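Note to self: keep these together.
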Amino acid sequence: MRTDAELMALYQKGSRDAFEELFARHHRRVIHFCYRMTGDQARAEEAAQEVFLRIARAASTYQPTARFTTWMYTITRRTTLNFLRDEKEPGEKVPIDTTGEGYDATEGISLPGRGDWDPEQVAWEAQLKDKLLEALQKLPEVNRAAFVLNRGEGLSYEEVATVLGVTVQAVKSRIFRARETLLAELSGLVE
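Structure:
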C-alpha cells in the first residue's frame, strides 16, 4: 500500500488514479470535519468537495515535509471557515442538522457510557449526541477547530498547531477552553 506522500508524488506527475485513491482514503474524514464545523450535512458535503478541488489545484505546492493529513486538514480548515463566512449573515449562527440524517458529529469522540446496553442508554446517548453537536456549534470557530482536529480526528497537538498556524500552547489552551465550555453545556447530562 502506497503512502499519502507517494500518492501525491504520483498525482503531481499526472496520475489521476493516485488522486482518486487519496480521495477514497480521506474523503470521509474531510466530510466528518466539515460536518462538525458546519453542523449541516449538505454544507459539509459541499465544503468537502471544495476541499478536494483545492487539494487538486494546490498539488504542485505539496512538499512531503509534514504528513499529508496535516496539509490536508490545513486546506480543509481554511476552506470550511471561508465557506462558513460566505454562507452566513453577519451575526448569524450556523444552523445545525438535528434530523439524525447527517453524519455522526460525535464519531471518534468518546462519550461516557452508562453500563450495560439498554433502551434507556440508547435514548440517553442519542440525547447526548444532539446536545454535543449543539454545544460544538456554540464554540468559537478557533476552539471548535482545535477540539475537533484533536479529539475527533485524532491529530496530535503539534499537528493541530501546524494546521491552525499557532503554537502548541495555544492549541492546548483552545482545547482546554472548548472542553470546559462543552462540559458546562452538557453538565445536566454528564456527571
